[in-house]
Amino acid sequence: MRTVLILAFLLVSTPFFSQTEDEKQLKAIYDEALTNGKAYDWLNYLSNQIGGRLSGSVQAQQAVDYTKAQLDSLGLDKVWLQPVMVPKWVRGVPEFAYIENKPGLTTNVPICALGGSVATPSGGLKASVIEVKGIEDLEKLGRDKIAGKIVFYNRPMDPTMINTFSAYSGCVDQRYSGAAEAGKYGALGVIVRSMNLRLDDYPHTGSMGYGDTPVDKRIPAAAISTNGADLLSATIKLNPNAKFYFKQNCKQLEDVQSYNVIGEITGSEYPKEIMVVGGHLDSWDLGDGSHDDGAGCVQSMDVLRLLKETGYKPKRTLRVVLFMNEENGMRGGNKYAEVARNKGEDHIFALESDSGGFTPRGFSIDASEENLKQIQGWRDLFEPYLIHMFYEGGSGADIGPLKEEGMVLAGLRPDSQRYFDHHHAENDTFEHVNKRELELGAATMASLVYLIDKYGTVPVKKIKG
Amino acid sequence: MRTVLILAFLLVSTPFFSQTEDEKQLKAIYDEALTNGKAYDWLNYLSNQIGGRLSGSVQAQQAVDYTKAQLDSLGLDKVWLQPVMVPKWVRGVPEFAYIENKPGLTTNVPICALGGSVATPSGGLKASVIEVKGIEDLEKLGRDKIAGKIVFYNRPMDPTMINTFSAYSGCVDQRYSGAAEAGKYGALGVIVRSMNLRLDDYPHTGSMGYGDTPVDKRIPAAAISTNGADLLSATIKLNPNAKFYFKQNCKQLEDVQSYNVIGEITGSEYPKEIMVVGGHLDSWDLGDGSHDDGAGCVQSMDVLRLLKETGYKPKRTLRVVLFMNEENGMRGGNKYAEVARNKGEDHIFALESDSGGFTPRGFSIDASEENLKQIQGWRDLFEPYLIHMFYEGGSGADIGPLKEEGMVLAGLRPDSQRYFDHHHAENDTFEHVNKRELELGAATMASLVYLIDKYGTVPVKKIKG
């Protein structure tokens, strides 16, 4: 049930009402974040005391325990764990790979298994390589040219896209579905160019799926660093007899028990209207998951603290949700939405931070035109903090399942230029997060939460009066 | 003399004229920068093959030779060196400092001499410390409490300022004038908290001046890292008898010959209307000067290449100027303006990049209201590249001396959050510059140059017709 709808509408048409109070509140939030923010210290612990938090790992459980304890210490109205079963995939001993020009003449190259991949045979896998620029090339080549080989997906991210997430979207099908598709043509394995705009030596993992491929037909898939990809491509052009060898030892185990971590400030006037702010607590295992998505978790936690510390009591219920298993299963996001539906909870707003802890530039917003306009009407309030982007677009993977008509979903949009330098790789580590940039993100999120709470949202189809 | 003024005015009032052509040209510029930009390679050479380029040093001369050779290779209409005498200050052997709780109980702390400072006595300088929050505290304390001591300026940069350059401006008087002022009260030396928003172990140098202090009254001044400053402050609060020791070996030598490096594409229609794009080639000596201001130099060089490669022939004369000696003398900027005035050259526009190689956010503009409005009218053209800031403000130190009524001066404004982590310190190094961020800056500059060239500027007081 929505309340104060008429008031909300009045406010949409008079955006300068109470401007001074709003300006003061935003200033208080940003000042608190930049002088006394807790996000960076929390991230330091998550990254340097716990580390990579792959679903089902000991570290993931440590992260659940740690963040719950931190939320407990904030004096919220409720803190609880929401059980969710998660897949457990383990990398095993590190991967090994080389390019073989001829027997005895080899060059090692950095690879890592894609998350969810099967292992190679225990002695590894060696075969000729056929390079493609995407899944669509497979059909043109046909089974004759693919069977018995390793398919090498080498379509790079498009450097001319200013939003690097668009460049990622333009490539990631190779990683996610490349093995399932190549397997249909008799390929023995798959090597995918890392989703990275830089030339460097870090392989970038990420999720992949076999679809309905029977277990005995699944072929192993690994990512190769961008420098490695360029070397492999150059080598097979010069020497079609070159072979590629790789060995990986990963394994899918049984699902295990895990948790979403949830903290709540219960609304003072409309406790049944729920606002969610969150990130995902799991990460890949190669780095320490600082940008993806330790940053989003600690920013979301700090949103509640920032509002408390600045003396703002939400009228609506505000929850921080640290979702488990975004990376390889989305179980946490799905579970949270399922429980919410079963309980008949009324979520009016959800905001996710899962694009790195870089300087915030604005929000992508998935909402009705009226709600989008209301938020865009707050543009001037954000201008002093150099927050300029309020565009229609996707929000976040974990909050997506909550989507209902009339609800406002949003994603924090930090600067994206450096994100894929680190994404899912060994160098997604704490020293690459800047304290101020992280804090500005938390303050930007808290500011939007404050405005949504104060003015409510506009449920398009349910307008009364 | 300005031309096509009426046309320029028409265009101001019809900003969508030729939008498609402009959109295409900007897209071509950004695409070229992001796929084939040369700025990063040039910066790699400047930073890793040459290194820090303090005025008068061998490295500064190597940078002159290298950048001239690179400009020569671009097929410009003219490339030349403009002679300018520059001060030569040398650091000598590295500084050394410690806090002495009592004789024999000492803790070393990282310091560096401020640029232009005198040395300590050859055995170093040891004295009690008096902490102040700024120059204004000196008068309150008076000579009795200051004479014979080391004055410790410890006012930190204000973390709540979103534009970190404002926080810098709020502190830098301590560094620039702290020694001259403290010397008047009989202080023996000065230690200044590094201009850094982070807590770390890097001391940050920077220019200082003695004003009209006689040579024999000049006292040595050094910067201490922020961690060192916090330790020193805590120590003297607990133990007023603690002493500080430092030794530095710097020296001001005679002025030496150096050069501004200049390249030009001569205007095809209005060759006498000159546009300048530039940065400063000198840097401090502690790091390799990648952000300050190698980035601005290579971006400026690439502006001319980007326009050439995209097939755009400027109607007006476009010069890249790599200014010498911005850091400790401003001789290059002053010389360029002096020569331009002596020759009666007509500069209509100058753009400087000297705020780091980070993601560009826009421009600060020093111009008449009409010119500011014309540039703000191009906002939509820049939106696809997430360039949102077009505000009135300062431009750049080197181009400042060119200022005349009717002229447009502008500064590229990159994201400023990380700039002072590196500014004037040992960690201003190449690995902290992101290739895409650097390239986006070059493309943003080239885009503004293109628009200024195409539509001209509006000289307020000289409107004809």
From TrEMBL, chains A, B:
<keyword id="KW-0378">Hydrolase</keyword>
<keyword id="KW-0458">Lysosome</keyword>
<keyword id="KW-0865">Zymogen</keyword>
<dbReference type="InterPro" id="IPR039866">
    <property type="entry name" value="CPQ"/>
</dbReference>
<keyword id="KW-0964">Secreted</keyword>
<keyword id="KW-0121">Carboxypeptidase</keyword>
<keyword id="KW-0862">Zinc</keyword>
<keyword id="KW-0732">Signal</keyword>
<feature type="domain" description="Peptidase M28">
    <location>
        <begin position="260"/>
        <end position="447"/>
    </location>
</feature>
<keyword id="KW-0479">Metal-binding</keyword>
<keyword id="KW-0325">Glycoprotein</keyword>
<keyword id="KW-0333">Golgi apparatus</keyword>
<feature type="signal peptide">
    <location>
        <begin position="1"/>
        <end position="20"/>
    </location>
</feature>
<dbReference type="InterPro" id="IPR007484">
    <property type="entry name" value="Peptidase_M28"/>
</dbReference>
<keyword id="KW-0645">Protease</keyword>
<keyword id="KW-0482">Metalloprotease</keyword>
<comment type="subunit">
    <text>Homodimer. The monomeric form is inactive while the homodimer is active.</text>
</comment>
<keyword id="KW-0256">Endoplasmic reticulum</keyword>
<protein>
    <recommendedName>
        <fullName>Carboxypeptidase Q</fullName>
    </recommendedName>
</protein>
<dbReference type="Pfam" id="PF04389">
    <property type="entry name" value="Peptidase_M28"/>
</dbReference>
